[in-house]
């Protein structure tokens, strides 16, 4: 425990010293003392104490000034702006008590000597004694000053830190949270600067900031000093790491790498400049390159997990990379204050029905939907014209914007990532936000009615007009147990983490083609045989999106593997059954560069699709890329819970050909625990079930295609739609028969489809037939689980 001295070095401070040195400095001291042996590198430094702050106020007669000015504000006799400005001016003009000034100067000299001598560059950070509490984040409330050199400039920066305790946003925030202004003191942290101006910096969370998924480390990174990323004035690179695999040195559990624009970087200014730091545009090479290597990403993620384990709560952490030494440092750590406080047993689900055209997209923050008129504000000077309940549209926010952010129905910004100021504050306020849109302030205009949709996963959408919105509250604590496994149908990696709270038994069908169409966007053969792509626009786009990869096929394998990893992470350690690509030829042709590789078929639904493509010379090399991505997913990233499923496999002989290609790519059934399933969607799968069971570990009934081919109805035909019935006796016979034959050979069998949710009596049919699992879309999980439990009860207690 630190003493009430004027200045204390970090190595004499611990986490219990918030009242002495504030939350930020207490946390730095805790890490220096307790986590250095764990490899957590924190730059050395010292802190002024709360006692020093109170003495400064007292000896300058400022206590009475603060009381008077705050009373005028509370009584409505002064504006927030005038109150804050008067208090700050008075504090900056104050004089240091002689012994306090001497203690700061001596500590700076000692830190300089410890760091090699001479006047060193330091970061001067504010640390309030009420900040970073478990239920309140003071993110960005007080000021930070970077590249401060020399004793006199340090003393000036410390006074400015004191003054920043009374910025407009800090006063407003304490009012909202019920903190007594005069009971909050400020400590100043003085820390050796990391030369991240020559390297990079960023923010990371040991929890998914949007969904609360606790097995993820989220890392954002930019070039240069970290203030730009905190303020949200640049769009950072984003990485996601799966925490449970970090202790396995043979794995590389990075499940997302997203390149950000990184439009500018903050560096040291030249000597004699008005400010010690300045922003400069990044080069084309910097914008096209990731800030961190894979090893650095994993190193940071391991630090995050160690810090989280030590504190026992999810953490919000700032880091910096020294451009001279290449070392990674932790410069701040505080508890995460939003998702860690949420109720894991409750799930509120927003969905959008009919809506206007999409005006702009960006990174979504939160999972809500809101409508309202646009209030476009490009300068803090115009904040006063904000209209309550409007959608705030601006370039980026900083703490000055907080008073109006909490009055907004939604927030949209041009710049920023998921750890920017706009994102952090919006999340805490429960206000949906879309950040990093690029041109929101150009596309949207004042008083335009819009809907802000953050319910679609990582990507947020701004629609024209007011959309139809449905809100459903789900209570997961009352769900019954069932013998029959109830699993999920998932395809979109961006939305997968939303469903981690559902007590599902795994993912019964993960559709690879969704990842190919939405994440990769290029036909695999166009990457392998790029010279055959003659469409000039397609060639340019393919060149652009594959830049930075050693060859174009590597782009396909890595992007597919990481996209699928985000799905597998939600299921682990329960199984994820991954269906290999099941595009029809017309759908393949729509991919970039795809038209030249695909025939034109009259009926693609029963044409060259599924298994028939995988051994065909015209596509076999594309299928080999799929296999390599699966191998990387299982063996490099680490998701050995992934099982593979082959779609539209018409005959046992065709199965043999596909399994041979897979084995050639290192995916052999039974090796390293690999299980391979077959979709049961062709009548021959039922008729010859015993033969298919010799080749596969399980069946998954695709009820849509099985109905189509049993009743002879094109499921895309509007004319025949009334005849399409997946509960028809003929279809039910097929389902019962394949379950009976599969179980006779000790082979598992499940079903994928909506019918058990839409029709409770169909769940009874499946349970009576002994189905092993049922897979449904997440929206239907609660109702299906309930229906299955009722059906199992009826089966045990027939009337």
UniProtKB/TrEMBL annotation:
The keyword Transmembrane helix does not apply. InterPro entries: ATP_grasp_subdomain_1, PEP-util_enz_mobile_dom, PEP_synth, PEP_util_AS, PEP_util_C, PEP_util_CS, Phosphohistidine_dom_sf, PPDK_AMP/ATP-bd. Residues 19-345 form the Pyruvate phosphate dikinase AMP/ATP-binding domain. Its EC number is 2.7.9.2. Residues 388-457 form the PEP-utilising enzyme mobile domain. Transmembrane segments: none annotated. GO terms for molecular function: ATP binding; metal ion binding; pyruvate, water dikinase activity. The keyword Ion transport does not apply. Residues 470-790 form the PEP-utilising enzyme C-terminal domain. Pathway: Carbohydrate biosynthesis; gluconeogenesis. It comes from the Bacteria. Signal peptide: none annotated. Keywords: ATP-binding, Kinase, Magnesium, Metal-binding, Nucleotide-binding, Transferase. It catalyses: pyruvate + ATP + H2O = phosphoenolpyruvate + AMP + phosphate + 2 H(+). Its cofactor is Mg(2+). Belongs to the PEP-utilizing enzyme family. Catalyzes the phosphorylation of pyruvate to phosphoenolpyruvate. This is Phosphoenolpyruvate synthase. It comes from Celeribacter halophilus. The gene is ppsA.
